Amino acid sequence: MEFWQSVFFKLENREVICSIIKNTNDRENFRILLRDINVMLSVCLSSKSGVNIEKLRQLGIDLMSHLRTKFLASNGNAWILINPSLHSMCAHSWQLYQICSSSISVYSEQAQEHWNKFVASFKSGVGARARQHSVKVNLLDIFSRMLIMTHPVVATKHREIKCSVCNDLGHTARSKIHANSYGPYDEDQSLINDCYL
């Protein structure tokens, strides 16, 4: 799981978020919504193969119908807005799995977004590593540094991964070794496992 999933969608954090909602029906509906979004994100961002397309489709249908029917104001209009990206992920990710032979996580924009901090550090500022004479040389230096960082020899020199739970090298706290240390993730994990063949 990614960092935002492990923090925001952690069960105790979801409970804190839901505790702000005063109406008990809305609180329970929002809790179910966050749980289902967590399951959908976990499946869509996973590199694991063998997704059960029908179960993923049904999860998307349930999530979208939950959004459209459970969050209604007294006048009958929805009080929660659906982001187009959320709609695309929930309602149409199963179609992408039907088209693709591999996981759809390879098509995410995480790799592109990952470069933003490097480009910003190369481009300007106190530690700028690109020449500031003109835009052309500045971009040339930025792209040169990006090419160097993606060179196979340089790319194999990864930093060592260290676990924050047991301080061992080679795995993280989110790995299967510490799956039980997250506590009550069982409901989410069983729903995630149901989405695979």
From TrEMBL:
It comes from the Eukaryota. This is Uncharacterized protein.
